[in-house]
Design a protein that fits this description.
One of its GO terms (cellular component) is cytosol. This protein has 287 residues and is of the alpha/beta class. It has one domain: 3-Layer(aba) Sandwich (Rossmann fold). It is built from 13 helices and eight strands. Strands 3-4-2-5-1-6-7-8 form an eight-stranded mixed beta sheet, with helices on both faces. Helix 8 links the parallel strand 6 and strand 7. Bound molecules: adenosine-5'-triphosphate and magnesium ion. Adenosine-5'-triphosphate binds next to helix 2, strand 7 and helix 10.
Length: 287
């Protein structure tokens, strides 16, 4: 059994290193403590802003509760990661190419099982998702809210974690709980704060400052603010139109804030660790 697992790891390593392109594929997990704070809108519009800068991006909807990126984009994908495994399909066959070439795939019903796969399905998952190494610049994971076991594993395995909060106290305290839990598992985790739905610049600053203070005081961890997205009625309008605000209302405050947030992200020193290889190894082998 141990031998078999070892063989599989060796095989996976070989495949992941045999990519022809030298793109450094980075995995970004977007999360929050409380639900409904804007993770899916941030994930989608962030991804589209990267695409506008000629980056190749795949976005995975890993919300184990309710997947909703497809609703925000107005697309209806036929397959999911789970059906890819059940039917032994290739990733290419199941990934939907959506708006402006953004690639999209939902985890699907029972995605939590991904952590306990074995044998043929494990091998298949590794082979297919691993094939993204070097082919895309970013894999963005829209994870569910809160402290689910699966969610935490995805966060631990990502190169960067975007923690979305809004100025309301429950979102801040629940966000803090996620940071604390992640910090207990991995002190080196690269977590960036995003304040969504602030009414003023001052409110955004105050919210992030309070969060950062608590994080330094109680966890001895400093967490950088990546950016703030204002509360903007055009976000709701875009959600209703099932079209991302970046494209539907490019001059809205929210769209401009997302573009700025992407620029800030790209200007940061790269924290690329192991990309897809590290991600897969960590989520599947508890490493
Ligand atoms: N910057 C914003 N300004 C105004 N409204 C916003 C903003 N961001 C999000 N919203 C509103 O909040 C709603 C929820 O956003 P979203 O679906 O992105 O949250 P979520 O964190 O992914 O939720 P869930 O936890 O259910 O997955 C949106 O439908 C929209 O109406
Ligand atoms: Mg969501």
């Amino acid at each position: 059994m141990a031998d078999q697992a070892n063989q599989l790891r060796q095989e996976v390593k070989r495949r992941l290193h045999s990519g022809s392109s030298n793109r450094k594929t980075k995995v970004i997990a977007v999360t929050s403590g409380k639900g409904g704070v804007g993770k899916s809108n941030v994930s989608l519009n962030f991804a589209l802003s990267l695409v506008a800068l000629n980056k190749k991006v795949v976005i995975f909807d890993l919300d184990v509760g309710m997947a909703n990126l497809d609703v925000l984009m107005g697309v209806t994908p036929k397959e999911t990661i789970m059906t890819m495994l059940e039917k032994q399909l290739s990733l290419e066959a199941v990934v939907e190419t959506g708006i402006n070439g953004l690639q999209y795939l939902a985890g699907g019903h029972g995605i939590g099982k991904i952590l306990t796969l074995d044998g043929q399905q494990l091998n298949h998952f590794f082979k297919e998702v691993g094939s993204l190494q070097g082919k895309v610049d970013y894999i963005i994971l829209d994870t569910g809210a809160g402290l689910t076991y699966e969610g935490m594993r995805f966060l631990q395995a990502a190169d960067d974690v975007f923690l979305v909060i809004n100025p309301e106290p429950p979102s801040i305290t629940d966000g803090y709980s996620v940071l604390k839990a992640l910090n207990e598992k991995n002190k080196q985790a690269s977590v960036k704060l995003i304040v969504n739905r602030s009414l003023t610049k001052e409110e955004a600053e105050r919210t992030s400052l309070n969060f950062q203070k608590a994080s330094v005081q109680f966890l001895n961890k400093s967490i950088d603010l990546l950016g703030a997205i204002p509360d903007d009625p055009f976000v709701r309008k875009a959600v209703i139109a099932q079209s991302p605000y970046l494209l539907e209302y490019p001059n809205s405050k929210a769209a401009k804030a997302i573009d700025e947030l992407v620029r800030s992200y790209l200007n940061l020193p790269s924290v690329y660790k192991l990309g897809v290889k590290g991600f897969l190894t960590k989520i599947l082998f508890h490493k």
